[in-house]
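re: ur msg from earlier - yeah i can do the 5-O-phosphono-beta-D-ribofuranose complex, just paste it... oh wait u already did. ok heres what im feeding in:
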Amino acid sequence: MTKIAIMMGSKSDLPVMEEAANVLKDFDVAYEIRVLSAHRTPKETAEYAEGLRERGVKVVICGAGASAALSGVVAAHTTLPVIGVPIDATSLNGMDALLSTVQMPPGVPVGSVAIGKPGAKNAALLALRIFGVEDAAIAEKLEKFREEQKQKILNIKL
Ligand code: RP5
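and the outut:
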């Protein structure tokens, strides 16, 4: 069953959002991935967001650039946790998307991560940590990941 939905506002966001998908593949966690735009396909975006919970999705990751409304619009149409990835798609290098994503009005929460690929990777890891609260197998994989990450640093010989 699909556990995580990855959404993005344009196909041009895919090279960034693939980072999130790759983490989920590594952890063997099921996901679905869709291009839907808050501004260009508003009705379809709302319908998709409204149907997420009944399809078994537990966490949504939304990436968008420019005046990034996707994560906020999705959060307005579901009570699932929404993680927003601001994408560096314009001459403002993602600062526009960061402010759009992070400055949600009180009552409609979006957890914003960093701009671009590091943010997409962390969005997936954060989603896995949410699952890891209840799912012992995922929590164990996260522990292993953390240990491997630690060893990579400790193995650096200068
Ligand atoms: C945003 O505008 C998308 O999320 C994308 O980051 C940006 C540019 O979209 P395209 O013009 O490449 O479709 O809505």
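cool cool. The mean pLDDT is 97. ping me if u need the other ligands too
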